[in-house]
Amino acid sequence: MRPFINGSPVFWHVGKYLCRVEHKLWRRSVRSISIFSWATAANLGAAGKATSGGAAITQPSQMGLTDFQYCMSVVKKADYENYLCCLLLPKELQQTAFAIRAFNVELAQIKDITRDKLIAQMRFQFWKDTLERIYSTAAPPASPVAKELFRAVRRGNLSKLWLRRLIDSRLDNLPGKPFPSVDAIDSYSENSVAPVLYLLLEAQAVKDVQVLK
User: Fold this and answer.
1) pTM above 0.85, yes or no
2) Partner residues linked to 9 by β-bridges
């Protein structure tokens, strides 16, 4: 028999709570992150021009930011709690951690800032293609997050499996349908959150995920 709270299944209450959390993150990301990420602009062939109005897109270097500082800024604005957590890591791990977190933010905000499913799929495809380039001999796209992720992969020998799983989990949940059960919520969390933790472990030369148990 399924547990109930106030006459409703537990997973209904959990789903309602998650919706509130996602709505809070959406409001924060809309206030803080530009609707066109540098990565998407580059992928769609913007060639330094915004798609509407023809104004030039300001690159991080033009704002006096390095790629690393840009990633820090993205995480600070959209995922402040984990921004603080990254600052508590040893200095030698912070650059890799912020690259991973910024990549996760880029993926998480796609569904919130893009209402058109086709455009959202194009954005996810961009990151799939970017991963292929990162793990090949090709240089990464001219995106600060992609370039920092490229360096993080080379520096920490990060597994492609976990990065790809972050993309796939968000893409599979693109329609934004309610979770039908607690098991579905658990599966989504395992595939959209846990890989970030596994990657942070790998950055510290820990490859065995059983260390979390």
Assistant:
1) no
2) 4
